Amino acid sequence: MQDVWSSHEVWVFECLSCATTWDEDFEVRHSGDGHGNEAVIYEMKGQPCTTPWMDRSCPTCGGQNVKALSAVRGKQAEVPKARGGSDVAMVFHLRRMHAW
Q1: Three-point CA angle 42, 45, 27, nearest 5°
Q2: What share of the chain is helix, strand, coil (3-state, %, to 5)?
Q3: Sign of CA dihedral 23, 6, 77, 70
Q4: How far apart are CA 25 and CA 35, in angstroms?
Q5: What is the pLDDT of residue 15?
Q6: Nearest C-alpha neighbor of 7 from the set 23, 25, 29
């Protein structure tokens, strides 16, 4: 049995020659064979492409010295709001019941 799932990733690129930064969106297709092996295919605009950390050139200066960062590290992520006390109490109650 083969497991297939996909995810959306945003990568931030920085040219180390001219300091230009830009973002690129990727659809990532994961395929598992059920035996612990996994294949990953990156797609941009519906077409297969190389992994984000390989073969990138700067759109401004054409330089090949480009650093790739996943968007979580490259940009500030929004901090989730704290849950109320009743939600936390419910979690501890469920844990005591071994339901979660």
Answers
A1: 35
A2: 15, 40, 45
A3: negative
A4: 30
A5: 93
A6: 29
